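[Meeting: bench + compute handoff]

Bench side (C.D.) handed over the final construct sequence. Compute side (W.E.) agreed to return the predicted structure before the next meeting so the bench team could plan truncations. Sequence as handed over:
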Amino acid sequence: MSDETPEVEGEEPPEPTDEDTRIADAAASALARARAGAADKGLRPGMRPKKRRRPIGQAPVLSGSARDGRDPALLGDQLDRLLLDRGWKVDVAVGSVMGRWPEIVGPDIAAHVEPQTFVDGILTVRADSTAWATQMRLLASSLLARIDEEIGAGAVSELKVVGPSAPSWNRGPRRSPDSRGPRDTYG
């Protein structure tokens, strides 16, 4: 048998302890504070809650398929902001010209002329022959207009065309002290 005695009908429950009284008082005071706060706001038991009104001139905050300020930013938008902040916008645009050179100038020109460098607004291109270098110098204004269409106006201010590189005769076995080198027989 157990030490506990079953409650008999007619007996009163045990007296509440001091701790039980404190808990009940705390709950009653919290309920009284909540009722007083509701009465201050003009709320009564059984009333429907009022709709919140936003200040005039502010757009509603909606969720759903439309973009709003709570949505995460798109990666492309963040990259554009980073490029602008760092001042890399023009360099990246000209880099895309170098990467898409055949699309911009066409396959015929791209077969004979290739971009080399871009420094301070000057795009340097190298032609594989002097004839193509001359042709590119003549087409420079139309090529600059085409580049401006692709990446925006003012990114490339000048087009510098260089011809094919020739070997240097300053040193080596074909150098003679008082001559122009092997070219002296060219005429």
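W.E. noted at the follow-up: The radius of gyration is 42 Å. C.D. will use this when planning the next construct.
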